[in-house]
Amino acid sequence: MKSTRLTPTAHSFWRPAMATFALASLALTLSGMQLLTNPAAAEPAGGNHAQALNNLRATSRAFSAIEKTVSPAVVSIRVEQTIRGVAGNRQMPFNDPSELFGDEFARRFFGDQYEQFKQYHATPKQPRKRHISGQGSGFIVSPDGYILTNHHVVGKADKVIVRLKDGRELEAKLIGSDQRSDVAVIKIDAKDLPFIPLANSDRLEVGEWVLAFGSPFGLVDTMTAGIVSAKGRTSVGIADYENFIQTDAAINPGNSGGPLVNLDGQVVGINTAIASRSGGYQGIGFAIPINLAKNVRDQLQSDGTVHRGFLGIMIQPLTSDLAKSFGLTDTKGVLIGDVTGDSPARKAGLESGDIIVEMNGKPVERAGAFRNRVAMFIPGTDVTLTVLRNGQRKQITVTLGELPSKDELARNGSPHEESLENLGLAVQTLTPELAERLGYPEQEKGVVVSKVDRGSLAALAGMRPGVLIVEVNRQQVHSVDAFKQALDTSREKGVLLLLVKDQAGSRFITLKWKE
After folding, report:
1. Bridge-partner residues for 140, per DSSP?
2. Is 398 or 237 the better-scoring residue by pLDDT?
3. What are the structural domains, with CATH classification, of the chain?
4. Rounded distance, CA 304 to CA 326, Å?
5. Is 325 one of the annotated active-site residues of the chain?
6. Residues 6+ apart with CB under 8 A from 311
7. What is the dihedral sign for C-alpha 60, 62, 68, 71?
8. Residues 355-385: tens digit of each pLDDT
9. Which runs of consecutive H residues, i.e. helices, occur in 84-177?
């Protein structure tokens, strides 16, 4: 059984696939053919066959009118990139063996071949260049030549060539590219260009007709039709900040960066990727909402970089088990697993275990959407958060900082553990030596997970060796004995609420007892 994969839709840099027809367009075609060949079969009782055909023709004329308005501002993008390396010899080792073993040992071990190795590594190598090219799409957003597209189309290109509807080819300048959102801005030196107006994507509704434009598989001036299948898709794994529009309008390799437009001919999104088992269109395409793209575009055009708001908290979805553990009846809101040191959140008084239910008076329901909303604010902005703390509502105002870069470190476990077979893990008390080895501050207290059984409750909950358990059911634990005592008192509840910590931060995990 083939697994589904996510495929950026720029052509040639990424894997091409078999082209398929758009389901919506095919459905319209088949409906029209049925009416023409067997009108009575499709005609409702007392209905009007001619009127049904006129409705189909009206839909076709509407699509044609949009195409005539939009396509002059859609561009095909060709990118070129040079990858530099050094010509090598597959029969020779990557390194001079004397660098690893010393000259005398290498000479004895490799014998006659050693002199060949020495001669090879002493000979100056000629640099080798490899040229690769790719193709994507974009659309003009201003008469003076600004163009929106995807980061994965142009972000690493050495040269960007834009082909206009009228056949002109112009070299474009990269104004800015943002990998976190997969949005990029380029510009061509031209005036009085046709451009496409931008819609308010927040008003887009599931079920609305949308049209996708671009150059799938290098076939320029292509339009496909479909509907909005879903909104607010997060955790898709395409970009750091995701709030995708899902559509069944056909999107294929080469469509990346092209516009997704509504029936008013306004851009609602940037075509970005497909979920596919073959690499080609299978009815699930994703587009970046234009409101998110506008925010990125404005900053890229201003100074070439994107500045995002930063709270300094680790958040996680409020699952039903977590909600029950906190005494809540629903899962609306996001749970703070950790507050980082000297962050805007810590300065404002936010705490681990707080549940954020509103921001600036608007409900907070999903972790991904909340993260996107925070990032949309300019650093220095004051936001008011409504949190639930110990069952009480509390309002806290935070002055946002600027999102920094993050590094994640893998951690390993340690020996001398206490095994807890019914949970499928083993733990040991955090000692100063262990804390130093694992990278935890000396003041940290708790028990370290040293082993997790494959397929156990702990493994299914995401536990892994090296994780530090700080609390059990909101009570701190400083040793294995204290941890086991906390477990014994929690059995009657049936669910464990653990506060765990690793180098990525803190988060809450629920485990159900297995008797």
Report:
1. 147
2. 398
3. 5-14+72-77+133-303 (2.40.10.120), 79-132 (no CATH), 309-402 (2.30.42.10), 418-512 (2.30.42.10)
4. 44
5. no
6. 343, 344, 345, 350, 374, 398, 400, 401
7. negative
8. 999 999 999 988 888 988 999 999 999 999 9
9. 97-101, 103-110, 113-122, 151-154
Which residue in 350, 357, 309 sits closest to 332, CA to CA?
357
11 is catalytic: no
Helical segments of 198-283, H only = none
Rounded to the nearest 5 percent, the helix, strand and coil shares of the chain are: 25, 35, 40
Q: Which of these is catalytic: 137, 177, 256, 506?
A: 256
The total number of residues written for the chain in this structure: 515
* Residue 474 region by backbone torsions, left for phi larger than 0, else alpha for psi between -120 and 50, else beta: left
Tens of pLDDT, residue by residue over 250-300, are 998 899 999 999 999 999 999 998 877 666 677 789 999 999 999 999 999
Stronger pLDDT, 489 or 173, i.e. the higher one: 173
Q: From CA 56, how far away is CA 459, in angstroms rounded? A: 55
Euclidean distance between CA atoms 305 and 146, whole angstroms? 16
Pick the catalytic residue: 137, 152, 276, 506? Answer: 152
pLDDT at 138 over 60: yes
pLDDT of residue 112: 59
152 is catalytic: yes
Scan for tokens 């597959």, then name that residue: 90
Would you give the DSSP letter of residue 198? B
DSSP 61: H
Give the model's pLDDT for residue 131.
Answer: 78
Task: Indicate which residue of 11, 181, 182, 201 is catalytic.
Answer: 182
